[in-house]
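Supplementary notes (optional reading)

For those who missed the lab, this is the record we used. Protein: DUF2306 domain-containing protein. Length: 255 residues.
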Amino acid sequence: MKDLTKSTRRRWWWTLWGLLAVSAAAVALYSAEPYAVGDVERNRIPLDPGVASHYLSIAVHAIPSSLALLIGPFQFLTRFRVRYPRAHRVAGRVYMVCVVLGSMAALFAAAFSVSGFSVQVAFFILTAAWLYTLVQAFRTIRRGEVRLHRVWMIRNYALTFASVSLRIYLGLGLALQANYFPSLTFDDVYHASAWASFLVNVLVAEYFIVQRVLRPAARRQGAAGTAPASAGDGRRVPVDAVGPAGSGSGARDRT
């Protein structure tokens, strides 16, 4: 029965991972394609006509951010980390550069967004959290704190995945508007979707961290008579800790 439960959990894990990877790839390709070919006419974001570089900032944000969205799911595969540690590190560095470039461009694009003040604030908060979690992930792996590195990377990718969530919530919101809430405007739905896109992701990520990283580690450490590690920064933990998808590869996971 125990083996059956393990097998069921494994199937659920791969199902969820597959949905994550497929949706990330679909949105990444959809978002980056018009900007990769430089087709201004196919721009999908409303532009401020008084800011000549607004389109450029959106393009610079869309392309590296889409690449980060594509890379992210594979970084959480234990087998990939264990069998190809060098590829994991290289992909991690590329991901980090993409997030930095994407976030810098996002700050400029959000400053001139014509979607309203509420959306600007949401995107500023999202971008600040995106950068902060990346810095923490980089700091922890440089100190050899592999478990904390994974915790911060889960948080960071949850924010990267906000681009997928935004489109899901926007589609659902517009469907609800058309069928049940005709008094709502597109702006109402878009503003709510912008905030939900990262706030809900953060809650899901924290639940995942507790259930798949901290709780199993606490049980193992409790059985060994050692104190469980914190999810916060500034505390050293064993480098052979188990990551979100199973047993980790220790110090070889350095970014």
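If you only remember one thing from this example: The chain has eight helices and no strands.
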